[in-house]
Amino acid sequence: MNPFAPARDFLDLTLQGHTPQQTSWHTPALQAQWLGHGLLQLTPHAANPQQEQILLSTGIHGNETAPIEILNSIINDLLNGALPLACRILVVLGNIPAMQSGKRFVDYDMNRLFDGAHAKQPDASEARRAAELEQAASAFFAAAPAGAPRRHYDLHTAIRGSVFERFAIYPFIHERQHNREQLAWLRAADVETVLLHSKPAATYSYYTSERCGADAFTLELGKARPFGQNELARFTGIDRALRERLSGHGTTATPDISGMRLFKAKYDIVKHSGEFVLHLADDVENFTALPHGMTIAEDVEVRYVADGGEERILFPNPKVGIGLRAGIVIEPASLD
Ligand SMILES: O=C(O)CCC(=O)N[C@@H](CCC(=O)O)C(=O)O
Ligand SMILES: [Zn+2]
């Protein structure tokens, strides 16, 4: 039986904006619960209470389609029994109107609206959805057995190409250590570069890390392309690693993170006004080194100048809204 019929599957149903005829059903291996548009919870019948609780989100930016396709294919395999499920998961397809129109966002970048920031943009269509996604994450983790590890992988692709093709962003954490087992798993997923954020942010991964106690990551898995135009062969590492983790085989007792490239955020380049100018061409890739003394960007009363020769640029984007981050200057780091 296909619970999403006449839609093909969960993604198809979500893009069509339909509600399934049944919102809760069983397969021989699991219970599925459709919790709302783009929200699907799967619980294995034979759950070990100490097993991980994993939130998998994607489509927070509607044009970042490769991870949406990958996650949908994993869901299909869990539902049809081709892939065993060992842990309770919540799947979130984030910005559905933006996915339908192939855009990063409709009114406002959703990944700047979490941790309460939605209250400051009440007119943006994304504000209500960000509040819903916070609530979905909080309810999912609140219902987890005490002591079960909590994870959140927020899957993205980036606007620009990248010197290091795949990378993770580790939200700023308070009074916790960076989780080496998680880093080793990322390495096994071919994600060998990690940016350690240095301050709180209004992103979904910061929200679940800070408010839900999850080991949370924003994963940048390649370059953003429209549905159907992704070279899925470039995403086999994360596909394999997620499948292993969900079926209970992903953890390593002796985490090895040797050879991983670690960076930390030094400061944000902020677009303060319409006068903002970025002195980096459109084809400059993420992680490009910034020579000492180079003017990276200028705005009214501020010049951003590279210092020391070890700095690199991440997410340069002069088209962001005023007041938002137009790039991050990063530098090499080591673990605490
Ligand atoms: O390619 C870009 O310029 C942006 C890619 C992207 O969406 N990145 C995330 C990173 C989130 C974080 O800093 O944790 C974002 O900008 O929301
Ligand atoms: Zn994104």
UniProtKB/TrEMBL annotation:
Cofactor binding note: Binds 1 zinc ion per subunit.
Catalytic activity: N-succinyl-L-glutamate + H2O = L-glutamate + succinate
Binding site for Zn(2+): H61, E64, H156
UniProt domain Succinylglutamate desuccinylase/Aspartoacylase catalytic: residue ranges: 51-241
UniProt-listed Enzyme Commission number(s): 3.5.1.96
Record keywords: Arginine metabolism, Hydrolase, Metal-binding, Zinc
Names of required cofactors: Zn(2+)
Enzyme active site: E220
Pathway the protein takes part in: Amino-acid degradation; L-arginine degradation via AST pathway; L-glutamate and succinate from L-arginine: step 5/5
Top EC class, one word: hydrolase
Domain AstE/AspA barrel-sandwich hybrid: 260-332
MF (Gene Ontology): succinylglutamate desuccinylase activity
Pfam annotation, one family: AstE_AspA_cat
Keyword Metal-binding attributed: yes
Family named by the database record: Belongs to the AspA/AstE family. Succinylglutamate desuccinylase subfamily.
Function in brief: Transforms N(2)-succinylglutamate into succinate and glutamate.
PANTHER family with a match to the protein in the record: ASPARTOACYLASE, SUCCINYLGLUTAMATE DESUCCINYLASE
Name listed for the protein in its UniProt record: Succinylglutamate desuccinylase
The organism of origin for this protein: Vogesella amnigena
Gene giving rise to this polypeptide: astE
